[in-house]
Amino acid sequence: GMNAAVRAVTRMGIYVGAKVFLIYEGYEGLVEGGDNIKQANWLSVSNIIQLGGTVIGSARCKAFTTRAGRLRAARNLVEHGITNLCVIGGDGSLTGADIFRSEWAGLLEELVQDGQISEEVARENCRLNIVGLVGSIDNDFCGTDMTIGTDSALHRIMEVIDAITTTAQSHQRTFVLEVMGRHCGYLALVSGLASGADWLFIPESPPEDGWEDLMCERLGETRSRGSRLNIIIIAEGAIDRSGKPISSNYVKDLVVQRLGFDTRVTVLGHVQRGGTPSAFDRVLSSKMGMEAVMALLEATPDTPACVVSLSGNQSVRLPLMECVQVTKDVQKAMDEKRFDEAIQLRGRSFENNWNIYKLLAHQKPAQEKSPFSLAILNVGAPAAGMNAAVRSAVRIGICQGHTVYVVSDGFEGLSKGQIREVGWHDVAGWRGRGGSMLGTKRTLPKTCMEKIVENVRKFNIQGLLVIGGFEAYEGVLQLVEARGQYEELCIIMCVIPATISNNVPGTDFSLGSDTAVNAAMESCDRIKQSASGTKRRVFIVETMGGYCGYLSTVTGIAVGADAAYVYEDPFTIHDLKANVEHLTDKMKTDIQRGLVLRNEKCHEHYTTEFLYNLYSSEGKGIFDCRINVLGHLQQGGAPTPFDRNYGTKLGVKAVLWMSEKLQEVYRKGRVFANSVDSACVIGLRKKVVAFSPVTELKKVTDFEHRLPQEQWWLNLRLMLKMLANYQISLTEYISGTMEHV
Asked: What are the residue boundaries of the Phosphofructokinase domain, all occurrences included (predicted)?
């Protein structure tokens, strides 16, 4: 994701009229100067967004840790008239930048005394502004939800775990996987949660003494219940209660000696740092890069050095040294064996992940059988992550002592009685499966209401969990509106939004949209490669999404598209003409290729075919065109780490909420629920998981186009256009605010 950040900072800088320099080889280049500091233009950062690593190089630098080294660095910056520095790196690099900034006035004074610069030059460059972007796969920097590179590292880990799972199942093996992360267990924790690992070692929460017996007992139990494999995930910084390191080989030898299982160790190592960046990392870095330039522009002598970060889906700025301090506090808490505190200092989402992992890792018998029955179904088109949500919902339901049914083929299956009770092990291994294992249909309840009611009565269903897209939301709304006619529908209902289109009201992200964006992005990367080879070629790529332009906009940002046409951002023939002229100009440069995305329903008359004809005739003799319709490949594939985790969390939270509501409305041995908040959509809003009543959401829904009336992601369109070099005004740009950790 670093390249996406370099690209965004460079282009935004040029866009606001600044001179932008790229410093090669990190602080080493800053100290050495010379050819390591080069002025950049718009094309310097073209075609790098899809590359892993960093094209400007990075190096650990001894010299910069000394004052003499920083003096040389200051001289090199002053020579180029550079007074704003954007540093992309981990906490070490950022702390170094802050020291550099605090010494700046003194360094210039020394340079004047040595006669290396004049007093006038020192006056012109009297202030150094610094902004940091955190690039680290460990996600160990406090204050930021996600650091650049973490999501891509999780993609690599999950690819390996999926591959290992298949071989382990065939051979009935146990695998001990060691993942990176230094002193932070984030990668291990999230991959453990996303793969359903049997046992997990993280430095923030060392196992209780005597863990060896408990672990072996648990591994033996899962085998005796019919599981063919065990997966143990260990963070490289794992320790026991006394602070002694726990190595992957120690764990392996333990399993072999005590249980005699065929056991293998896989150390993932630097695989985790490499490869193509994920869509999330590309969009995150682009967003943070733009915000970093704004932070530098708006800096005053009184503003502290800041880090640009993400909070939910909003950019924020945080004082650099506050973040560094809290990051050090975590380490201190771990050194002093205050482990519970360490987990809290890591932040809400870390703690949340850890609690959910502990809840789902191992079957705990319910305290007592509850009187409630829940039914779970999938509705609409398949979306990755649906199975993860079903799995965690089933397991939490069982933990709570409920009777849990699953329904095949959506509302149609509910009307035909395709309903069966499930146990803990029936959903084993579902988390990494794409599509919908239960089967899904678009049928709405109003076509078969009587039969649905009959089966709700027959199976005595008091809670209905519907996992699906717009039809799931619309279906539950129809059931709620039929409560007046059928008392059987006065039950607790919850919708988990799962659709690649991300068009369900009540949530910022629906399950499956991250996987779909990654699938579309991978295809577009290949298409771009083909266009680069043939020269002077423009591809028009059609994405899915119904009327919702989310998929096309986010994919457009992730692949550096020239334009993305969507229904929500109306366009006319003048806009199309401007785009054609823009591409014609582009063909005169060294970059002789174009990529234009079009959402399938963005315009009634300007179809993909129309765009192709328009571009072909207008570009005649300058470029030629090709069409690509991505189609159903956007619905397929194994879920991304985000969707596995998000599905798991939503499944857990939805069932816990339903259990609570069922208790509230249980009177004299029966459930009767008809209040507004007894049927809700669960979703992520900014940073919080919220429940919104379907009847309330009805007021903010455009049913004709199957869209929420307000959509947060429309403000990403500004970034898409700016990065594609369109002359637009930045007055609509909303700067991040300075917050505190």
From this structure: 1-295, 374-657
Quote the DSSP letter at residue 307: E
Each residue's pLDDT tens digit, 638-676: 999 999 999 999 999 999 999 999 999 999 889 999 999
Closest-CA residue to 600 (of 635, 564, 576, 624): 564
Task: Give the pair of three-digit tokens for residue 85.
Answer: 């520095």
Residue type, 589: T
Q: What percentage of the chain exceeds 70 in pLDDT?
A: 100
**How does strand 21-23 pair with strand 37-39?**
antiparallel
Residue 139 is predicted with a pLDDT of 85
Tokens for 501?
């289109």
Query: Which pTM was predicted?
Result: 0.94
Q: Which domains does the chain have, with CATH numbers?
A: 1-147+277-331 (3.40.50.450), 150-273 (3.40.50.460), 371-511+643-708 (3.40.50.450), 519-635 (3.40.50.460)
Q: Are 531 and 594 in contact (CB under 8 A)?
A: yes
User: What is the DSSP track for 421-451?
Assistant: E--GGGGTT-TT--S-SS--B---GGGSHHH
Q: Please, is 475 exposed, middle or buried when counting C-beta atoms within 10 Å of its C-beta (0-12, 13-18, 19+)?
A: buried
In tens, the pLDDT along 556-609 reads 999 999 999 999 999 999 999 999 999 998 888 887 889 999 999 999 999 999
Whether the predicted pLDDT of 387 surpasses 90: yes
- Describe the crossing of helices 641-664 and 386-399 by its angle, rounded to 10 degrees: 40
Active site residues: 138
Q: What pLDDT, on the 0 to 100 scale, is given for residue 312?
A: 75
pLDDT in tens, 130-152: 999 999 888 888 877 889 999 99
- The per-residue pLDDT for 617 is 94
Query: What is the C-alpha to C-alpha distance for residues 605 and 596, in angstroms, rounded to an integer?
Result: 17
Q: Which two tokens stand for residue 524?
A: 């577009």
Kindly report the length of the chain: 741
pLDDT at 112 over 90: yes
Count other C-beta atoms under 10 Å from residue 670's C-beta.
11
Q: How far apart are CA 375 and CA 358, in angstroms?
A: 24
> Are 461 and 373 within 8 A, CB to CB?
yes
Beta-bridge partners for 311: 314
* Ranges of H-type helices in 277-409: 279-297, 320-335, 339-345, 348-361, 386-399
Distance from C-alpha of 572 to C-alpha of 38, rounded to nearest angstrom = 41
What's the CA gap between 26 and 68, in Å, rounded? Answer: 17
Q: Is the pLDDT of residue 461 over 80?
A: yes
3-state class (DSSP) for residue 179: strand
Q: If 0-12 CB within 10 Å is exposed, 13-18 middle and 19+ buried, where does residue 259 land?
A: middle
pLDDT at 309 exceeding the cut of 90: no
Residue 455: C-alpha distances to residues 379, 490, 661, 710 (Å): 17, 14, 22, 37
Integer CA distances (angstroms), 298 to 9, 131, 477, 492, 732, in order: 15, 11, 47, 50, 16
Q: Is 668 exposed, middle or buried (0-12, 13-18, 19+ CB in 10 A)?
A: exposed
